[in-house]
Fold these 2 entries.
Entry 1:
Amino acid sequence: MDTEISRYDLTSADTKIIGFDFQYFYFINELLKLQIGQTIGYEAKDDVHIEIYSNSKIITKLIQLKHTVHKNADGSPGNLTDRDDDLWKTLSNWCKVICDNNRKKIVEQLNFLKETKFIFATNKKIDKNTFISNINKLQVNKMKFTELYKYLSKLENSTKDANVKKHIHDVITLNNKVLKLFFENLNFVDTGDEIIESIKSSIQGKMIAKNRVNDVFNALFSELKQDFFKNVKTGNHQIISYDEWLKKYTCIFEQNRNTTLPIRSFKPIFPENLFDQPFVKELIEIGEINDKDLSQVTEFSEFMLMVRMNLEMWYNEGEITYNDLDKFHKEAINIWKITHKKAHRLTKSDIGLNNQNALVCLDDIRSKQLKMLTTDLGIDLSNGEFYYLANESQIGWKIEWAVKY
């Protein structure tokens, strides 16, 4: 029995958003299964459709997605009943598609059905649905069409909901030959409530290491959504052929199969007083920034925290070893030593040049790009590493940095 849910919950924007997200995640999951010669579309011919080229013909799968937030007492999604409005509204709409104005003749409707499959996919539980059970029996010759039709007539007569009653009537008034073939081409899918996990499993199945699956998932979702909005803005549907799938999206998988480390964006937690950091104090002293330059201090601190968080993540996930970390820090220090010595060559004989040459050293260091193994860190993270070393009192900019910092 379904747990009670308020009318407000049933019509809330959150519920609708979940339904749309469910549709799009299903689309992505099917996209990951796309084969040579196939095409998939979102919100074009149906919620999702797949075209399969076979023996000079195109077989089209029309897929309707229905999601519920209703829960049974055991926490599982609600049941799909024999009189479910979503179910019969969908079947009624499909029957209207079959009898489209361009297909008035029975033979035309039958020809359409020979090249069309219908899939009703839902997270509702379908195992106790008598109608679906009878459809399955018809498809394996364990029930005659006349028996199924008799069952549907009784269902229509015993249904009190006017909308559902009308939808059932729309279905059973279809020509018997057409209706029988429609039922033979009708399938029901219990998607479960773990559609995202299903996508991630499909991604991992494409030779993606487990610790890279989330990176592929996030990049793929972002890229597909951007393409979706571009298509909508130009009045087009999102339709992707197998060749387009390979051309536009293979790079996401390839980038996560090679030895390049994934550089991720984080939301760092900044220290309570940014200006109390040792590396910031020295930057103020040499005149690089002033003690009110919050935006610059925040940016430099973010670079430092970002490199620390990426290094920590790579180490914790087994992408790099402690020796790799140690070697990385030592190499950065060696680069600094050469730069610092060069910048302060004249400072020993003229201490008045100390701050000026400290800035020369800093400017030179900021142009250095570091690598972790084979991965280029780029300027921001490279700068972040040098700020980190300065903050840990392992390097500095003035000639006597070690004494003071």
Entry 2:
Amino acid sequence: MNSSTTLSESPQPLSNLVVLDLGQMYNGSYCGMLMALHGATVIKIEPPTGEALRLRAGSPGAKLPLYLVNSGKRSLSLNLRSEKGREIFLDLIRKADVLIENFAPHTMEKLGLGADLLLKENPRLVYAASTGYGVGGTFSRYPAMDLTIQAMTGTMATTGTEESGPMKTGPAGADFLCGVHLLSAILMALLQRGITGRGQRLEVAMADAVIPSLSSSIAYYLGMGKDPPRTGNRHSGMAYAPYNVYPAVDGHLALFCVRNEHWSDLCHVMEQPELATDERFNSIANRVIHMDEVDRVVGQWVAQYTREQAFEKLMVRQVPSAPVLSVSEVLHEPHFRQRGSVVPMDHPIMGKLLVLGSPLHLAEVPALQPQPAPELGQHNFEVLHELLNFSEQQVQDLQAEGVLGPKD
């Protein structure tokens, strides 16, 4: 039933799974897309008006984020606030292996579709919930989005400079970190089901998924007994030098010497080998003490070259470094095209489009090629007919009654 493949022909690891995806925005939706790209039949269930990403204002391009994180799914529009909508949902639950939702805590209970009821209807179900701060605890009642999670977890406090004040990160890191952790928890629960024969409810909080990424900043606090400063492009724990982004002739270059050997190699690349044994710079600790001077020396060298020229010289000695690429450069970089990180697609509405592939590379079962994300309710009949044996007339009646969409 998956729009990317059929069960009979697919060797994909998740090809026997039926996933009901109530995910909205990025978090739950990305988790569901990864499952679809590895063979699961993923049914995206949305209210008749569509989920939040469909409601973004502006040009047709405003909906592009929805197309990026919903490839390979089928769409069912269903009014879960109606009695018939809930009945249909329960019928689908009895056929499903996994349910994904990232609503606010207790939303499903308020709809009369809480985890206890669903697991009673289908004891093999893996009920996967993603929340902002968890179901219990003081913070659980707070609305949570990527921005607020960054604020509440120390991410913003450690991003930017002392002059800039707290800043959010460029990417929606909280959403996507949580989506990947949610997938991990689902796969563990499915393995457990293989042992016990029973499903279970699981939960991953965005905040919990983000906090480990602050390990360098946490280590600074534990070691120094005070909050780490906002260090801009320097190491967040102020534990390495050089560790910075340096202006080049045509942009910027990031550079990081992890070991003393890297520093020695860098000094040879810069044609200043004597700096490798200079007592100011001959150890990680000494370079940190003289961080400003390290940055001055490295910055002067990088400034002579274009990004690519400096990078090529550094790669001769494998000094950890990289040109700072723009989003457009990333999307058109052959390496990422070859890896399938971004995939060209002829989209039925948007035309030529780049979408996201799976970052999970299994040697014997490559991920499926992304297929266009569905339009709202595009597969209403197919889903209800194939899973629940509904007739075309029954589906038309549900549409007219407002169960699948606005009343006619």
